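Record type: monomer structure entry
Structure origin: computed from sequence
Chain ID: A
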Amino acid sequence: MRILRSIAELSSVSGPVVIAAGAFDGVHLGHQAVLRSALDAAHDVSGTAVALTFDPHPARVLRPANAPRLLTSTAHKLRLIEEFGFENILVVPFDQEFAEVEPDTFILSLVGASRPLSHVCVGKGWLFGRGRRGNGDLLRSLGSENGFQTIEVSPVQVDGTRVSSTLIRAAVEAGDLPVVRRLLGRNYAILGTVQQGAGIGRSLGFPTANLAAHNEQFPPDGVYTVEVRFDGKMMLGVANIGSRPTVSDTGKRLLEVHILDFAADLYGRDIEVAFARFLRPEKKFSDLDALKAGIAADIELARHLLA
């Protein structure tokens, strides 16, 4: 994957250039439809598809007090877009200065940097530029004047409901993993960096990877069966989200993962934890022996379900 950090770097991409533009938080089925339209168009014109997104999420700049918790950090979003098939991703720095750029100025900067710009693919209803004054009509008008085509992708519906990041965020928060899975087209996942923990799990015979999570939206506290991905590998495990009331009174919320049949050192590594099934709520055990027995029971049940 090649990350472009400025619009000017589009000049280094082999044309014709096809751009899929959007915030893409969650890379859900609706986003995937936009991304797929760009890949298809690039194939048709023997060009290069480029995903264009923003960092930070525009809401963080435009309405910081009401910005939503993100489904994917920028790093996680880029990983998912790469897995979808993009070799080039343009990450536009979004700050107050960029927020004041007129919509036609923004699009014409893409035209000027591309060699040439062939298509711009967006979700229907996407708004952009200063005051969110840019829309599909403006794109088509600029396209007719500057030689590129506009593809507006209609919203994707699942069970009669429009797929959106807002809807998925609410489902994750409620712990409705089956709904989340249908809207994303995959299990909900959290990307995090493994950090040093207190070693309690290891002392009980169940070593855990403690994650400093990059995501912001978590499922409810509790125990889950999970799929753990790192270095191109996929392994099965059991994760706990919560404050570990048996061994801690800080109230700090943590994500810990026990990877089945795995004991190597992962400190400092980024791993992705995908939630497959909810097992039980987090609970406070009477002592460490009861905690150990509870963890063993969770692992036994997880092995049975994951088999």
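Annotation 1: The CA atoms of residues 104 and 138 lie 8 Å apart.
Annotation 2: The chain is about 30% helix and 30% strand.
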